[in-house]
Amino acid sequence: MSSLLSTALSLSFYPNSPSLHFISQTKPQCVNSFPSKIRFQITCSATNQPPPPSKQQNRSKKSKKNESKGEKGIDPVGFLTRLGISHKQFAQFLRERHKALKDLKEELFNRNLMIKDIAYGFELMGLHRHPEHRMDYMEWAPGARYCALVGDFNGWSPRENCAREGHLGHDDYGYWFIILEDKLREGEEPDELYFQQYNYVDDYDKGDSGVSIEEIFQKANDEYWEPGEDEYIKNRFKVPAKLYEQWFGPNGPETEEELDAIPLPDAETRYKAWKEQHKDDPPSNLPPCDVIDKGKEYDIYNVISDPAWLEKIRAKQPPLPYWFEMRKGRQAWLKKYIPAIPHKSKYRVYFNTPNGPLERVPAWATYVQPGTDGKQPFAIHWEPPPDHAYKWKNTHPKVPKSLRIYECHVGISGSEPKISSFNDFTEKVLPHVKEAGYNAIQLIGVVEHKDYFTAGYRVTNLYAVSSRYGTPDDFKCLVDEAHGLGLLVFLDIVHSYSAADEMVGLSLFDGSNDCYFHTGKRGHHKYWGTRMFKYGDREVLHYLLSNLNWWVVEYQVDGFQFHSLSSMLYTHNGFAAFTGDLEEYCNQYVDKDALLYLILANELLHTLHPNIITIAEDATYYPGLCEPTSQGGLGFDYYVNISASEMWSSLLKDVPNDEWSMSKIVSTLMGNKQYAEKMLLYSENHNQSISGGQSFAEIMFGEYENHSPESLASKESLFKGCALYKMIRMITFTIGGGAYLNFMGNEFGHPKRVEFPMPSNNFSYSLANRCWDLLENEDVHRNLFSFDKDLMKLDENQRVLSRGLPSIHHVNDTSMVISYIRGPLLFVFNFHPTNAYERYSVGVEEAGEYQIILNTDEKKYGGHGLIQVDQYLQRTINKRVDGLRNYLEVFLPCRTAQVYKLARILRI
């Protein structure tokens, strides 16, 4: 069967072959940055041209020289130069970090054929269906001597499906490879062709039509070759043999001596004569080549292809449709085979180690029962039949210019004292989020974790959604429905540490203490008892980078908030005093490998998925968090201002209301002005109310009994608390950067903290839920929710967060009044608990009429409605106040805030 098709079949491509992932035949050039819009092929972004001269006048000669010829547009200290920061030690640290990044990329590319392999490890690792009626399993465990897959599919036998060190499946990098053949049904025979493939997804295709393999090959040859052409392919000596016979006859010379003794005419003459003799023959009888003698002594003849024939052959397309016709459909597979591992089978990986045998939940498992209530943990093979697998309906929403994020925990999202499911959340919470006016949700605790009381931050299985909330398809439905409502979906991802569990987690995974984590003290969090990843290990990098891409590819999430970066960036886990000196960010306590991982994570995510959003949660505010990686930054889109919520909590608990400092409030909320536009602000998130804390509503409103207004300790205290609650949310929302976050329930002043079931509360679920019924039964909470919805509409209609930073022109600690301008809007806050101001002067730049468009004291928000309708429109007075050319005289009741919009400009 000598044809192009048969040749292609004999060299068939195995997409899951382990050798494709780790061995590169050619050494690629070093890539200094991931080129955009590249997924399947590595290209080098380096050039041989020197970079253009810098436009900045204050750039030093040293920084110019530092840009090598292959790094056009890259400056390791670029953001320091732009900000005018001079710090020799930190600048040197950035240059050394950049060189280490280049070396790391070169090493990664040397071990991977394509850029996608660095972040697509989940396509190879773990358990996967292979088209040749089998399952492939791959795991990284360099410390193991023996590896087997055990489960209910093989009676938990460690000998049936195994791979031993040095035999069938253990390579130099510590990867184990196990093949599990699908089982033939009784009475069925194996396929004749060893490369027979099955299209497991499609129920029916041409492969089930009954056409034999021989017929398919014949049809392919008949279509590809013109009549007579294939005979020259089948026998490569036929052309010269036929010519030889024409020249010398059937009894021609058989040895070189005999050939030399016979005088031969010119080869070209002989061939032209022969061609003339056969000019009337059909084209199929003529060879697709010309024989020309170049006159050299050692040339008996030289065969050169006919250019016209060669061009015709090159224009042909291989008969690939027939190759796909050979792939039988799922109906044929079901008739002949039983899956090696059926859907929903339980399994674990078995290792024999120097310390003895052990069983683990596979590191790349995508669905896991973590083993709560004393049960053994195990992975679950999730491969539903194609007709039952989830099919996506909606596409990603367009990324908005400002983010209004609704932070959620699925388990506590219901009203009942139990663990809520993905389906409950989809049905009840998502419509509420849409109604509330938010454009994104951020989910915490979704990744599998063993201990529910940790709120999901002690992750055990990074590739699995938590089984306590539902199946992987249930989570896909949640994401899909959120997209259908126009909501982005973010995950709070924990790559800064991992749970210390051994049976279900990664700790001591292969029996050794240095598989995924550092050894000794370095491998344990100083205070939390969790394990610290070894970011300098290439396999650990591969695992974590692929994990980020997994959630985007498999579950279509739109972004990540990277939790607790300070835990991973420093060997002291962030538990040290920071003064702001740049030396603290480049000394011996800084983990350079962790920084390199974060840079790689941002570069790969933004290269593979240009619309992805990444958010950094770092209490130490590492310099360059949101700067481009090409300019020495870490590449995040936003960073979290953690100080804001800590400030509000401290003021509410420890400082009398009349002693609050307006200057401190403004400076804390604004943060670092150089990065304020990239800032994500919240007045409180889940941290303020989980396990031992108090929600702000609980602090300000007093105690509730049975959610009844009559049981309030003081209605006046409730009113004051609500007034202050609205002001805190409004100033936090409108003064900061381009992103805002609210924790589930706080939009209506949830009066209770969150407390997960644990031994200290007798495993009670009474505080592990949300009181949604308050929106129906309580005016207070309905009013607060109404205010929060209008606050979100303010950004939607007036584009508050996307207008750039506000101009803060009035901060008075004595009167406790704050005023600032953002776009055409004027914001005025009176935080004084008792003093009202009848005609308070606030400066504005533009002369005209200003209309109140939002007032916290309106009765529909639970206020007194002290500002009359005729006071909603104010005209400017031409006098310089607060450094501005005009001013307004406004009525400011105590503990109220107003938003004015320039309705009409007056020309003076």
Structure description:
By secondary structure, the protein is of the alpha/beta class. Helix content is 29%, strand content 18%. The strands form 7 sheets. Strands 3, 4, 10, 11, 12, 13, 16 and 17 form an 8-stranded mixed sheet that branches. Strands 14-15-18-19-20-21-22-23 form an 8-stranded parallel barrel. It has a 6-stranded antiparallel sheet with strand order 24-25-26-31-28-29. Helix 17 links the parallel strand 18 (488-493) and strand 19 (559-562). Helix 5 packs across helix 19 (592-608). The longest helix is centred in the first third of the chain and has 23 residues, at 88-110. 40% of the residues are buried. The model is unreliable at 1-70 and 291-295 (pLDDT under 50).
What topology emerges from the helices and strands here?
Layout: H1 4-10, H2 19-22, H3 61-66, H4 78-83, H5 88-110, H6 115-119, E1 126-130, E2 134-140, E3 146-151, E4 162-164, E5 175-181, E6 183-184, H7 213-224, H8 230-234, H9 238-248, H10 256-261, H11 267-277, E7 289-292, E8 302-305, H12 307-315, H13 320-326, H14 330-336, E9 337-338, E10 346-353, E11 356-360, E12 367-369, E13 378-380, E14 403-409, H15 422-436, E15 440-444, E16 447-449, E17 459-466, H16 472-484, E18 488-493, H17 538-555, E19 559-562, H18 565-569, H19 592-608, E20 613-616, E21 638-640, H20 642-654, H21 662-670, E22 679-681, H22 696-701, H23 715-735, E23 739-743, H24 774-777, H25 779-798, E24 807-812, E25 817-822, E26 825-830, E27 837-844, E28 848-855, E29 873-875, E30 886-892, E31 896-905
Parallel strand pairs: 12-17, 14-15, 14-23, 15-18, 18-19, 19-20, 20-21, 21-22, 22-23
Antiparallel strand pairs: 1-2, 2-5, 3-4, 3-10, 6-9, 7-8, 10-11, 10-13, 12-13, 16-17, 24-25, 25-26, 26-31, 27-30, 28-29, 28-31
